[in-house]
Structure prediction request, 155 residues.
Amino acid sequence: MYPEHTPHVPAQRAVEVHQPTPYPPAAPLSAPLVPVQPNAVPAVASIVLPDGRVVTGYAINPVQPEPVTAKPAVSRTAVNVALGGAGFLAVCGGLLLLTSFIAALTAFITQLIILAAVIFGGWIAVQILGTNGRQGGGAAVNIRKATFKRNHFHG
Prediction:
């Protein structure tokens, strides 16, 4: 970033001193402003900085925060019991859903098998019962007379 062969001197900064401007205290409009001598004069502290400057001002006591009440720690046993209970409920719910899904799938497959049996049985019934009124059609078999119409066997 900086050239290596360029010697540079640390920059000198001008120091500005700002004097604080006091604000007049807010007084109600109805009450007259009466000067009052304070009970005690606050102590003035001066600090000498490492560069030789002197800073003077009033010492301000730091504001003490209110002590925080310690919250009782939750025991690990209580956390483990709660997590174990939640896990157990999740597993039970999953098994219930799995059981319900298997039961529904079984009922669906059973209904498909019954539907196929009804359709196939109806087709068989039409094939057997539908040939009585027609001549020369179908595969009607009369075992007692040994007559097969389809392949022309007459006994």
In short: The first strand starts at residue 44 and ends at 48. The CA atoms of residues 44 and 70 lie 38 Å apart. The chain is about 35% helix and 10% strand. The beta strands are 44-48, 54-58, 141-142, 147-148, 153-154.
